[in-house]
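User: Fold this; tokens only.

Assistant: Input:
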Amino acid sequence: MNNKYIKFAALAAIAVGGYLVIKNLLGKSASSAPVSTTPTLPPQITSQDFPIKKGSKGDKVREIQQILLGIDANALPKYGADGDFGSETESALFKYLNKKSVDKQDDIVNLNGLKDAAQGQNLQNSVNSTRIAIGNQVIQDLKSSGKSLYAKDIVDVITGGLDFSGREINPTSKTVVTNALIVNGFEIKGTSVLPSGYLKITTSGGGLLGGFIKVSPFAVIVK
């Protein structure tokens, strides 16, 4: 074979071999590197971080801001949880903690307590709003159909009488089983939805002056 071709073939083999070696090494390096799927959590606030006040920056500030936003989603309307303790954060902190800086762990505990209470109240408000909407629908069904009210599930109802001024007297709790009658349509004198979302039904029964029934609209059916 011509020496020129032999030299060319040898150089080509060296080049290919070197490429394969480098590729193998790179492949091992890439595949051997572990990929972390664990989310990075912000460090917890400790006593060494206090005081946290106007001018403070970083994850500790952002954690406090997120607690404030948990108390009220509109607590930091301009900057949000930006990790910068400025005038907006100071004002929000003073509103809920009555102080302008976070100086000890008890302050964090108090803020978290306010957040839990606010979120619980928000949930209750949401439940009440839904209950009010369903209660109004039940009232419409009762008015349009002239039918009676039955228990969809086992439910506790409050019953009692009315005095001359229409004030409730002698309220009593009782349990009504599934599909049992709560009140006949012909006994219903009036219906309303209370601020809590519960139905209040005034009836011709329950005494000389009539009576009342209070029940959750979630647990009733008109038929």
